[in-house]
Amino acid sequence: MPQSVSGESFFGRFSSSARSSIASKDHKATVQLLDDSETIQCEYKKNDTGQALLDYVCDYLNVVEKDYFGLRYQDANKHRYWLDTTKQITRQVRASPNLAFRLRIRFYPADPSVIKEEITRYQLFLQLRRDLLHGRLYCPQNEAAALGAYIIQSELGDYDPTEHKEGYVSEYKLFLKQTSKLEEKIAIAHQGLRGLTPADAELQFLKKASQFDTYGFDPHTVKDAKQGSVYIGVTHQGILVYQANRKVHHIKWNDLDKVDYLGKEFRVYPKASYFNDDLAPPVDANEKTLN
The CATH number of the domain where 188 resides is what? Predict the structure, then answer.
């Protein structure tokens, strides 16, 4: 696991000329990092773009592979938006003393092993832990113990019976629905990971998580043709649609004929061959949950 980010001033990471330039900036914002334990204060000028702010945050974290990341913010109605990196910040959000952004993974690589830098993999690992905890990443029951064990191995290293007493997994909130039975299975799986370094445990976690349908799924609530509420989102595999806690469509990109929109209406046209498949098999309500 990469070293924790130091507590030094964010501005201390820039040269004296850069500091003098930043010091003259007239708008302030707070950025929450992916591990939730740290926020940084940033300043920007009226004409600065979203890319400038994202660059500041990535430089703070020593992240070079910036294209995977984005900054999110909420409007007064709690609607979430991505900060457009090509547009001026001041044209997207109103300056205020409480202006806050959140660093998030915006583009999930289909194969996490293509990521070159360990620090970038670690940030993706943190994002997927969030997705798992909040129910956006659905983990099949038969995979949950292994996935949880990789997280524990990353956090604690090898299992040590003198340190890891009964129930130690319960100190970590890993899943949206976490039971004592699951925690016992995670503890058993953790014992079998002896010798796996934190970085290797995180990579194994990424490889397994990237195989799930909801890997990278960012659900948005919309109305269907019958005015019912559904969740829709895209992944590297295609378009996912959930109704309540039931997956009703998973349209792979190869099965998609076209997509268009008119005003606020968004239309998806699958190929005729898609409708030959079983579109919505019964799903146990306890197995597929999204928040």
Answer: 1.20.80.10
Print the domain residue range for 134. Answer: 112-209
* pLDDT for the residue numbered 273: 83
Instruction: Count other Cβ atoms within 10 Å, centred on residue 106.
Output: 18
- Give the residue from 45, 78, 105 where a domain finishes: 105
Q: Give domain status of residue 74, yes or no.
A: yes
**pTM listed for this prediction:** 0.82
The strand pairing partners of 44, in sequence order, are 27
Same domain, 45 and 124: no
Residues 6+ apart with CB under 8 A from 152: 169, 172, 186, 187, 190
Among 57, 74, 105, give the residue marking a domain's end. Answer: 105
Residues 229 and 260 in one domain: yes
DSSP per-residue codes, 55-109: HHHHHHTT---GGGEEEEEE-TT--EEEPPTTSBGGGTS---TT-EEEEEE-S--
Q: Give dist(CA 191, CA 160) in Å, integer.
A: 8
Say what the alpha-carbon torsion angle 163, 126, 66, 118 is, to the nearest 10 degrees.
30
Give the C-alpha separation, 219 to 80, whole Å: 11
16 & 82 share domain: yes
Q: Is 158 within the bounds of a domain?
A: yes
Instruction: Report the number of distinct structural domains present in the chain.
Output: 3
| Start-to-end C-alpha separation, the chain | 29
* Whole-angstrom distance, CA of residue 129 vs CA of residue 115: 18
| For the chain, percent of residues with pLDDT exceeding 90 | 62
Q: Which two tokens stand for residue 246?
A: 């039931």
pLDDT tens for each residue of 133-173: 999 999 999 999 999 999 999 999 999 999 999 999 999 99
Confidence of residue 10 (pLDDT cuts 50, 70, 90): very low
DSSP state of 265: E
Q: Is 285 among the domain residues?
A: no
